[in-house]
Amino acid sequence: MLLLALAIGTRYSRVLTHFLEIPLVSQSPVTEAVVSERAQHFLKALIERYIREGQPVGSRTLAKDTGLDLSPATVRNVMADLEDLGLVSSPHTSAGRIPTITGFRMFIDSLLTVQDLKETEISMIRSELMAGVSDSTGLLASASRLLSGITHMAGVVTVPRHERTTFRQIEFLPLSEHRVLAILVTNDGEVHNRILHTHRDFDRVELDQAANFLNHSFTGHDMETVRERVLKELNDTRESFDQRMTQALKMAGELVEDSEVKEDCVIAGQTNLMEFAELASLEQLRKLFDAFTEKREILHLLDQFQHADGVQIFIGDESGYQLLNGCSVVTAPYQINENAVGVLGVIGPTRMDYERVIPVVDITAKILGAALKKQ
Q: With the CA atoms of 318, 322, 327 and 331 taken in that order, what torsion angle do they form, in degrees rounded to the nearest 10?
């Protein structure tokens, strides 16, 4: 696991911890010591303009933005140095440059200053979050819509773990003609029944043994975890199980896949991403919308940071999920009684306005936690 300390801005002078489950697959991180102060100044100006316009930035434009009295040749040399360091690149045959993932990482780690939100903005977030909401489910949906509305990107909020549907008990009853009645009970009292067709008849003793095995293995786990463990154990340990346990897993898998469970995360504003040219390819959008619909991979990513300290920022392939290439994810945990119970955040293009998004995500997490505490 790679640990990066991000010191950002005045109010965000506290350390923002960036956890990665896999090593970066982009260029090796470049330290400030390697990049001259002048080059950092140019990199900051380039990224700020790229965030605003989404277009490659040319040397002349950059010279004007920096306000430095330098010759065009000097500017081009600085840009070439930044490119050699892997901080910027030249797309296609364009004379302009765009920041790389490594460039964005240096910008966020070292060059970005995040300002406090104004009290009027905080009050607006608080009032809009609470407007017309009377329960925790409504608060989560309101928070995702609010994040989406403010940032014009996708807002996502995970459901508190104690509210997620978990596996309580499973039971199998023998029927005739190679059939078994499977009964699944979840923590919210829901009962899911399904008739399963098996390759042979099973007697009551065999089915009780199968149920005991599954109840011992999965009771108390959320349904998404149960789904994954069933599939994993069937794929990875098939040879180590006897036939009865393998059949038990198969039957549990059929029932769990067929059961409807509560949403584990709430997402709003996915279609906002269609407005960004860099994410507008049909293939990229298809993968993103599939992920938003399935939610499993996004939930896994967010769940990693429930106990993280403050705001977490992932740029492009840093998340470890290929479908999020070209995107950045900014998250923060929300707490009830000082215990982190979930995560909220924003998903958008790498050129998102971090200076704006970071404090919005941070404040919304704090307000959501306080509101849930009152429920």
A: -60
